Every structure is written in structure tokens, then in C-alpha cells.
């Protein structure tokens, strides 16, 4: 099918010969559907790199051992979840939550970052993730809210386009801008497949990303940022049918 008429036409026949130019948000939104239609998995799969035969054997054996451990851990996780269903909610719920969080640390999900049609880089599932499972913890430096406000201004002056400040509560904020993990690459969506929850483990508050629905191999991991309402609007390019148009 023919693409949207808002696509830029390159007179020379190649975008590379026309130098750098900025694309308006409205025009950029038209590209989102085009990228999403290309297929999710093909963009995520890594490009194969030739390796020496001996090295390839070592990598294969390591992968086999790692996969065996993951399968064993996965079976144990299923058994524990089945037992948890029979437990009464109350004091036991906290211990079960701790157990599940420990499972997140020992049996981490296969995730990969790659270019995203939503914004810059995104995080993709490299295995099937069931609804209700923990996907990844949002890791960063825990700072006070007053410090976070000053850092946000500093990041803007330094030209850092994206700051990764995630508020835990009125007092604490997780800053993953310079110290964090892959969780900071998760993009916003108005119709996300994940949700972020604040859980308390041994008196320490943590931000954990849960799957709201079954996530297939190659799906991009998304959650709703829930930005507060502001006059200066940030356009949303999630491309979902329920897109609100703006992040805030």
C-alpha cells in the first residue's frame, strides 16, 4: 500500500545527500506505523558475526548450560506460583512477594535493546513472558526529591534530551540517567503491555515492571509513564489505537 503523503520527498533520491534536517512531530508520527509494519522480530534479531570454530564451541556449551539452568529455574518458579495460589493473603503475601522478587534476580528475563519506532532506543522481549510475571527492576541512584529537581535542571542545561527520573514517593526518586540498567530504555505507550509497581522488600522500596498481558517474543516492552498534566505538551508517538496524543 502507498505510504502517507507526509513523508519527506528527497529531490536527490537519497536522504544521506541532503544533510541533517529536523522532522516535525506530526511528520514523524506518520513514520511510526511504517516501522511497526516491518515486523517486530526482524528488527530485534542481532546480526550474526562470524567466529572461530573453537570459540563457537565454547559459546554453544555455555549457552546450553545456561538454558538448562533457566529451564530448571522456570519449573521451580511455576511450582512456587501454584503453591502461592493456595496460600491465604496476609502475612504470607509479603514473604511470597519477596520470593518472587528473588526469582526476578536469579531467573532474569531475556531482553534486548534495539532501535524503537516510538522513541530512540527501546527494550524488547527475547522470550515469551506470561501475564503477571516480573519483567525487570528499574534500577538507578536513589535520591531525594529536592536533589532530583536540581538534577533535572542540570540535565537540561547539559543538553541531555532524556532524563530517567522515576518518582518512588513524595520523598524519593530513582535517577537512572547515568547509573541504571536496561529498564530505563522502556518507552511509554498509551496502551502498554506492562505496568510499573512500587514494592517494599525488607524495608526498601523498589520499582518493578510487571507484564500486564502475555508478551510474545520480539514485542517491545512498554508502560504508561503517567506524566502529570502540564501546559508544555510532549507529543506521544506510541502509535497505539488508544494514543492520547501527548505524554502529559
From TrEMBL:
Keywords: Chromatin regulator, Methyltransferase, Nucleus, RNA-binding, S-adenosyl-L-methionine, Transferase
Catalysed reactions, as listed in the record: N(6),N(6)-dimethyl-L-lysyl(4)-[histone H3] + S-adenosyl-L-methionine = N(6),N(6),N(6)-trimethyl-L-lysyl(4)-[histone H3] + S-adenosyl-L-homocysteine + H(+); L-lysyl(4)-[histone H3] + 3 S-adenosyl-L-methionine = N(6),N(6),N(6)-trimethyl-L-lysyl(4)-[histone H3] + 3 S-adenosyl-L-homocysteine + 3 H(+); N(6)-methyl-L-lysyl(4)-[histone H3] + S-adenosyl-L-methionine = N(6),N(6)-dimethyl-L-lysyl(4)-[histone H3] + S-adenosyl-L-homocysteine + H(+)
UniProt entry tagged with the keyword S-adenosyl-L-methionine: yes
Principal location listed in the UniProt entry: nucleus
Subcellular locations according to the entry: Nucleus
Residue span(s) of domain SET: 109-226
Superkingdom classification of source: Eukaryota
Alphabetized SMART domains for the sequence: PostSET, SET
InterPro entries: COMPASS_Set1_N-SET, Post-SET_dom, Set1-like, SET_dom, SET_dom_sf
EC number: 2.1.1.354
A GO CC term assigned to this protein in UniProt: Set1C/COMPASS complex
Gene Ontology BP terms: methylation
Keyword Methyltransferase: yes
Entry-linked Gene3D superfamilies: SET domain (2.170.270.10)
Any one GO MF annotation of this record: RNA binding
Domain Post-SET positions: 232-248
Protein name from the UniProt record: Histone-lysine N-methyltransferase, H3 lysine-4 specific
